[in-house]
Sequence to fold (228 residues):
Amino acid sequence: GQQVMQIPQYQHVQEGEDFTTYCNSSTTLSNIQWYKQRPGGHPVFLIQLVKSGEVKKQKRLTFQFGEAKKNSSLHITATQTTDVGTYFCAGPGNAGNNRKLIWGLGTSLAVNP
Amino acid sequence: NAGVTQTPKFQVLKTGQSMTLQCAQDMNHEYMSWYRQDPGMGLRLIHYSVGAGITDQGEVPNGYNVSRSTTEDFPLRLLSAAPSQTSVYFCASSYTRTAPYSPLHFGNGTRLTVT
Fold:
C-alpha cells in the first residue's frame, strides 16, 4: 500500500548545528504537510507544500517539495533547544483513499545545549 | 475559540470496561478524526468523519466505535477495553472534507492505560 517514509528516525545535534529530515512517498502526492510534536504534546501544523519544486521558509526552517512530488525535506539552520521534538510529514492518500492522511513515522530531534 | 477539546486528559481502565473519549471543536470543521499514537508506530487513524451523520473506518478501527450526530462533537467509544488499547489518543479536525486537505488541528490528547 501507499507509504510515507521518513529518515532519519532519530537525530542528536549540538545547539547551533543544522538539521535535516527527509520524507519519501511511494506515490505522487497532491500536497505534503509538516507537523511538529513537542515531548508530551500534540502535533502542531507547520506548513503545507502544494507545487512541484516548491520551497518555503519560516525563519530558520526551510521546507522543500520535490519536482516529482514524491519527496520533501525540512531543514533547520542553527538549531536551538526550542526545536526539540518530533517532526512528521503527511500527505493525502491517493484515489479512493484521499480522505485520509498518510503519515511518516517521524524524526525525533534532540538538541544538546 | 477553544479549538479542539478532548476529555479526559488521563484515564485508567480495567480490561473489559467501556468508556467514551470526548472530542469537541468550535471551528465549524467538516472533517474530524481519531488517531492513536504508540511508541515507534507514529500516528494511526482509527475512524474519521467528513460531516454530521457520516463516519468511516481508518487503518485500526477494531474495538472502537464512533458517531457524528453534530458538526461539533465526535466521541470515540471503547466497547470492551483491552491492554492493547493502552495508548495516547488524539482527536483532530480540519476545514475541508476532500483533498487537498487543509491543516489538521489536534486536541491535547487523552492518555489511556488499560490494566
About this structure: Chain A has no helices and eleven strands. Chain A touches chain B at residues 30-31, 33, 35, 41-45, 48, 50, 88, 90, 92-93, 98-101, 103-106 (CB under 8 Å). Residues 39 and 100 of chain A are 25 Å apart (CA to CA).
